[in-house]
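Colleagues,

Please find the record for the two-part complex below.
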Amino acid sequence: MPSDPTAPGDRDPAPTHADPAEPVAGAAPAFDPAETLRLIQVQQDRARAATEPDGRLLYLAWGIAWLVGYLCLFLSAGADGQAAPWAFVVFSGAIVSAVAFTIVHSVTRTAGTRGVSARTGALYGWSWMLGFLTLGLVLGGLARAGASEEVMALASNAFACVVVGLLYLGGAAAFQDVRLFVLGVWILLVAAVATYAGLPLTYLVMAALGGGGFLVMAGIEHALRARRRSVAARCVGTVGGSGEAVDA
Amino acid sequence: MPDAELDTVIHAPARLRVVATLAALGAGDELSFPKLQKLLDMTAGNLSTHLRKLEDAGYVRVTKTHEGRTPATYLALTRRGRDAFEDYTTALNTLLRGAGA
């Protein structure tokens, strides 16, 4: 925390060497528990940042991808509710980018770790792969059976949302993450609402409620992290009297 | 007098950082030697020395394995190491409260 501008009234801002209460130079007392606790916290934050994927970044990537992708589909839709080819190109590009970012980010962060979390993460990652592989096959089968363009558009959105929602519920169970569970429930609701909304409103629902949902989650994760840090810094800072925030 | 309650194995700053880093992992997780080294900014030799002391104390489990043809070393806190780290931070907090009152 920055120095309080109202504070220097009772103390000379320029440290006088004679003041024994301010051990600026020549300090190094034998052992400072507050400083040690602060160092532990800094080191553990650093370790977590280097071994766990950052949920804020993943939610942000998916929020932007859904918002931009589905908004293009919605805006390009003609009178028949069908989106234009260019919009599908943008949509595919947005989704592929988000997938690539998620994989690269998660693999980079968790590299060099082994054990329960790594196995859980790998199984979870494969679940996504298999879910969407199956979805592709099912959609191919529906098209082959003569499903109309409208049914195909609605089914691909709805099934994709169901896969995402259910995997979040499963992920919440695996990682003991209640917020992820809430997001999963939200995405399942979006699947239902978007399908009943009908084309092209389906795309707007997906962009606003789906993409918006991810962005809200990114914001919540960020706020919680900022609060956890400031609380931890204040605990150590007040008791130890150093007043230094952990970092940022 | 309170200093005597602090675990001397963990009390050394370098080893405290090793243990704090490993304690940030889940209980069933391990960290590779190069990644741990990078997280601590220590030389390999220095880190090995501290890890040996922690292993001798029963706080750290060292697993040597092979990934393909290259040898790899993984580190994890033992149950005892995790307990020791918790006791240590509890002791620090107790000292703080004592000093602040």
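Chain B touches chain A through 33 residues (CB under 8 Å).

Comments are welcome before we finalize the supplementary table.
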